[in-house]
Amino acid sequence: MYSLRPAKPSDITAILPLANEQGARHASLPKTTQSLRSFIQTSEDSFRTPKGLTAQSGNYFWVLTDQDQVVGTIAIEAFTGQKEPFYSYRRETLINASYRLKVKQSIPVLYQSHELAGYSQLHSITLASEHRNPRAIAFLIQGILLFIAEHASYFSDRLLFEFPGFKDERGESPLWNDLGQHFFQMSLKEACYHASIEDKALIAQLMPNQPLYENLLSNTTQSTLGEPQQDLADYYQAFISEGFRPSSHIDIFDGGPCLTCFTSSLWTKQESARTRLTGLPENHTDTIAMNTSKEHPLILLLPQHQPDFIQPLNLTSKEWIRWVTLNTEGMSEHHQGEGVL
Ligand SMILES: NC(=[NH2+])NCCC[C@H](N)C(=O)O
């Protein structure tokens, strides 16, 4: 049975192998015991934020468990770009035209941008390989959105997820090979590691910050900019089903789409309901249910027709829960890539 709860220091041994799995991206999840310890400390402080006080710098780190074993992770940074700028490329179109020569070209140009600062960002998604199935993927993403829906005042009115970008048959990013590599002189994976939440100054120091004409990049790069990594279709679908859409921004390293959504229009926000424990209808489909505690949240996946599965919430009949139907629409059971987003 799957559940989501805040990560604790005692989870570190179980998180380390997930964080260090060979992945194309490995964006922001810390990879050492020491850095995980301080990430978990920040997270514990964030969950504790007293009511009425919004934590602009909150970073909430969750583990997905199956029968009490840690099998995945996900995190929410409450507001991007608080301590350091938040980097992406904005794509704009320029028209270059000569009336006399009858040449008219519309050329997409990439501008370094900090516009996605102030969003709440989902990040650090990992799933152990045996759990890369639609139910776990949908639960991981929807569960966290249910928490955001319940505690909306601690988060931005806009959400962001930097989806991993297109990779070629060798698993390499055409944009990275055309661009970032020349400035960082290292692999995408190493650059992601260095530029993770802990040392972002590197992006400002090394990435070119002048506008870039896309037609100077290779044909493969041009035709795949803004495309999601192909073997992560179920994760992509989970975001699309919630109302996330590609914005005019792309990831500064691998060109993946920056998916954004207004918090108020999330499917999970609109479809979820609050009820007393006794008011929970018999679940004819898989259902996500959580207590409404900010400090000690617990989010459960109740398999259909199994109302007793709610017991771990340890609630009295008068307490509130928020619940929503699990949405796996449009997902299929194919290979789920590295599972490290
Ligand atoms: N694939 C990557 N790691 N890209 C770098 C993303 C950096 C991120 N937008 C930030 O400013 O924190």
TrEMBL record:
Q: Which domain of life is it from?
A: Bacteria
Q: Which UniProt keywords apply?
A: Acyltransferase, Arginine metabolism, Transferase
Q: Which InterPro entries match?
A: Acyl_CoA_acyltransferase, Arg_succinylTrfase_AstA/AruG
Q: Does the keyword Kinase apply?
A: no
What the entry lists under Pfam families is as follows: AstA (PF04958)
SUPFAM superfamilies for the chain: Acyl-CoA N-acyltransferases (Nat)
Q: Where are the transmembrane segments?
A: none
The record, for PANTHER family, names: ARGININE N-SUCCINYLTRANSFERASE (PTHR30420:SF1), N-SUCCINYLARGININE DIHYDROLASE (PTHR30420)
Q: What name appears for this protein in its UniProt entry?
A: Arginine N-succinyltransferase
Which species is this UniProt entry from?
Litoribacillus peritrichatus
Gene symbol here is astA_3
